[in-house]
Amino acid sequence: MIHLISDLHLSPEHPEVFDQFGEYLADLNAGEDLYILGDLFEYWLGDDAVDFLGHAEAQQLLRSLSNRGVKIFFLSGNRDFLVGEKFADECGIELIADEHILKVDQRQVLLMHGDSLCTDDLSHQKFRAMVRSPGWQKTFLEKTIAERDGLAKLARYHSEDGKAQKNMEIMDVNPEAVRETITQHDVEILIHGHTHRPAIHRIECREAAYRVVLGDWTPKPSWIQLTEEGLVLAFSDSVQRLYF
Ligand code: MN
């Protein structure tokens, strides 16, 4: 069984989400795989700031999960793109790149965070290109934690401010970007998070392609269970199924 989650936005301000995360992980079995598709954390300042951000417990939780034989894969989101190898080593998780191809039997499943598909949101795409560049990351990580925190708070303030003003339509994925990505990777299934709009969408670009979107964890966990036969998407009080 393959499990997928995203968009928990863990932060010490919301211990109830952390508790739900712990309960969710307790149900996973040795030999199973867990894919985290980004924005596990509300924000990330670098692997040296785990204690500063109050994520030592989350690190321990992931470590104990990998110790009991669950393989964990982490694809970063637009909030936690600075999660690095040090944190991965501490937790025993494997970092994977955005647009990761997961093989399930003969089927290829494309995994993304999803923000790169929101191409109508030009200011986010500009921000994304900047913060994903190695030069920007190096300069940022050389600053003190307090300096980084100040800059991140400023960026989040502007982004929250922008979100309220942005038309809701441009916060969702762009259908053409979805079709292009699915065609480019030649896959039938795309799974992503980011938009907090959980659903299973049929995509009309080839015989039978689907875009499956994970939800966030407020007020309830959202997850996908994926097998050779199909997948189950859970969010709020709903469960939706897709049979292959
Ligand atoms: Mn996101």
Known CATH architecture: 4-Layer Sandwich
| Number of strand segments | 12
Bound molecules: manganese (II) ion
> How far is it from the N-terminal to the C-terminal residue, by CA?
15 Å
Read across the widest sheet, the strand sequence of neighbours is 4-3-2-1-10-11-12
Descriptive tags:
8 helices; Purple Acid Phosphatase, chain A, domain 2; five-stranded mixed beta sheet; 244 residues; alpha/beta
A few lines on this structure:
Helix content is 35%, strand content 23%. The chain has 244 residues and is of the alpha/beta class.
Would you mind describing this structure in some detail?
This protein is an alpha/beta fold and 244 residues long. It has a single domain (2-243), classed as Metallo-dependent phosphatases (Purple Acid Phosphatase, chain A, domain 2). The protein has 8 helices and 12 strands. The protein has helices at 15-26, 50-53, 56-67, 85-91, 122-131, 134-141, 145-165, 175-185, and strands at residues 2-5, 33-36, 71-75, 93-96, 100-104, 107-111, 189-192, 199-203, 209-213, 223-226, 230-235, 238-243. The strands form 2 sheets. The protein has a 7-stranded mixed beta sheet with strand order 4-3-2-1-10-11-12. Strand 5 and strand 6 (107-111) form a beta hairpin. The chain is globular and about 50 Å long. The structure holds manganese (II) ion. Manganese (II) ion binds at residues 38-39, 77-79, 113, 115, 194.
